[in-house]
Amino acid sequence: MDSDFDSPFGYDAYRRTCPSHTVLEMLASKWVYLAVCALRKGRQRNGELARKLEGITPKMLTQTVRVLERDGLVRREVYPVIPPRVEYELTELGQNLAGLLTQIRSWAEEHAPDIKDARARAAAANDGEWTA
Hints:
Elements: H1 20-27, H2 30-39, E1 44-45, H3 46-52, H4 58-70, E2 74-79, E3 85-90, H5 92-125
Antiparallel strand pairs: 1-3, 2-3
Helix pairs in contact: 2-4, 2-5
């Protein structure tokens, strides 16, 4: 199977067994995406991050930052105080990714009305067969 281009990194995401699939799966998470973008502005405490990510449950926030920490995108610092204080910040690798994700987020915000209109036209043409 040939890719659209030759990767200088020796990986080919189009191949079924390519290790890059696990990276793409992680990036496909809405919460991973939004957490990385939110942390781009700098170090944040757990509560700040939870407030920024409206709708995220405490369990999902914990899972998300653990994945980001595991993958080397986020650094977690725990302060030995009562009650415990935890802060998160992007690593250099995370900052690199955040730049790309911020561009995609901006594109999505700019073109959301266009996508919404296209979905409405498609639904009307298909008698409501497609839903948003």
